[in-house]
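From the shared-data thread, chain only:
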Amino acid sequence: MVDSIFKENPIRIKFAMIEAMCIGKLQGKDAYITSLKDFIARYPQSEERDKAKDMLRYLMGDDKAFETVDIKKTTVNPNAFEYIEDELHYVIAIVYDKNTTTLSDIKISVSDFNQRYFQNEDLKISNIFLDQDATIPIIMIRKFDNAAKSLQYFKVIKNNPKQFIAPEINKEIFVISQSNYRKLYSTKDVDGYKSFFKEHYKE
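Structure, as tokens:
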């Protein structure tokens, strides 16, 4: 009926949708289902099609037909750590010993460790401070082509801990990708990364 009256009218689809709803109200559920199916078949490219489909699903027993996604819950945190196996990796030692005179000694110890176990690798040692007060240095050993190669280095540390950094120095040692290192330095979320590390870099 609507198509014959509003054949050339661009709003005929909206009227057709209203007509389907009126049929449902006047003639009952079965007629409503039939009219919605007919509407979907006649206007498969229309914006109203999705609404008609939701109505049809609901009438046919789907109680979740009109549920919407909670945008807040699905928003991606740009600072969330991500595991990318083939990305460049580092090994870092976060040192909590506030005696700043130990920093140069630590770097010498790490350099000796590299010469002993990785002399054929072109590894660089650098440091930066995690905090603004410059009391928590991060010693970085870089770079490794992927997660697997950085883990090989990490395992050698675990097998020879005294030769890497003196045991009495309070520290945490991690394997970390290049992008995650940037996030860690930006957020200072060491506890968050520790959990991520334990989950994704299992030996």
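The beta strands are 89-95, 124-129, 137-144, 171-177.
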